[in-house]
Amino acid sequence: xxxxxxxxxxxxxxxxxxxxxxxxxxxxxxxxxxxxxxxxxxxxxxxxxxxxxxxxxxxxxxxxxxxxxxxxxxxxxxxxxxxxxxxxxxxxxxxxxxxxxxxxxxxxxxxxxxxxxxxxxxxxxxxxxxxxxxxxxxxxxxxxxxxxxxxxxxxxxxxxxxxxxxxxxxxxxxxxxxxxxxxxxxxxxxxxxxxxxxxxxxxxxxxxxxxxxxxxxxxxxxxxxxxxxxxxxxxxxxxxxxxxxxxxxxxxxxxxxxxxxxxxxxxxxxxxxxxxxxxxxxxxxxxxxxxxxxxxxxxxxxxxxxxxxxxxxxxxxxxxxxxxxxxxxxxxxxxxxxxxxxxxxxxxxxxxxxxxxxxxxxxxxxxxxxxxxxxxxxxxxxxxxxxxxxxxxxxxxxxxxxxxxxxxxxxxxxxxx
Length: 417
Fold this sequence. Notes:
- By secondary structure, the chain is an alpha+beta fold.
- It folds into three domains: about 5-120, 2-Layer Sandwich (Beta-Lactamase), CATH 3.30.450; about 125-305, 2-Layer Sandwich (Beta-Lactamase), CATH 3.30.450; about 315-415, Reverse transcriptase/Diguanylate cyclase domain (Alpha-Beta Plaits).
- It has helices spanning about 10-15, 35-40, 45-50, 60-70, 120-145, 150-160, 190-195, 210-215, 235-240, 275-305, 315-330, 345-355, 355-370, 395-415, and strands at about 5, 20-25, 30, 85-90, 95-105, 110-120, 170-175, 180-185, 200, 220-225, 245-255, 255-265, 335-340, 380, 385-390.
- The strands form three sheets. Strands 1, 2, 3, 4, 5 and 6 form a six-stranded mixed β-sheet that branches.
- The longest helix is centred in the last third of the chain and has 32 residues, at about 275-305.
- The protein is elongated.
- It starts with a strand and ends with a helix.
- The model has no long low-confidence stretch (mean pLDDT about 90).
């Protein structure tokens, strides 16, 4: 800081400059210009009568008071030539400002001439860029590490928690074949609330749920007060019980294709700021692209494992599953059974009726096998008309019953209809 003299004839220019200008002397403001009034929301008289530390947010007060005392003693060698801090307007709002102080002589006494610039928008942009960088880093990891959409969704919600202070969040993924949203991942939902609100939702006109409404409109929905909004009335009692306040639902759309909906919720005492909502809207396209990429990879893995005619697992997958099952049986002493079946005289069927009819028979058999098995069982097309079924935790007698049931169903669908 240099010590300069402030001449009275310069005050006209100082009064009308676009920066906030003040002179601090003898422990108080002795001059503030019009811009300081507009910036702070206080009148000149109020500012001149106010303790300047009251205008600064608490985390900056001690440091500012220390720098002020040091400057007025003339010890300015270690002081910054400019610094940033947050100030409090009369209406309670906060602003980021940059202050450039200069040590001056004013009316024969040492004083501090301050030049204050509102940098709130710049700080908002810096914060948005910081949060965006953090999220994109986490997004890249989520895409590379996730093999399933549910796994990707969970990682995305965890990444968002690093940049947005939310209480609950979920991702619903869109199934275009069924035209429904189905739950993919959630964070912090009580089971009671989850069972009512995070479930399959039809994407139809007039649907009165936040997620489905946002998906149908392909536009974000901001529920500013969940207790007084038509889209939350179906779960109003639970919203009150768990003290929910605001919801922001943003459709996950990329290249005009809907991939799902992200919902972020805060409880009473918090708000989803405009900056938070803008950030979620910006990020939604990349989240949608991530879901699309993993969906495509899942489809490729599915096709690589499946027989294209029957939809059953293929021979290569059978080999992998059999080895896995053998190891489990040996390690844990588990019992399992394998059923082998084939279609008698299938070559004659192809020769007489053609391969199109033969493929139809194979498809029907594939459907029978899939519908006849438990979730932990698996069926495979072993060869042309040969099939294998693996039944974990199943004895020989139980496997025989399964085989007989399949035989009866084959007869009913292929011979009696």
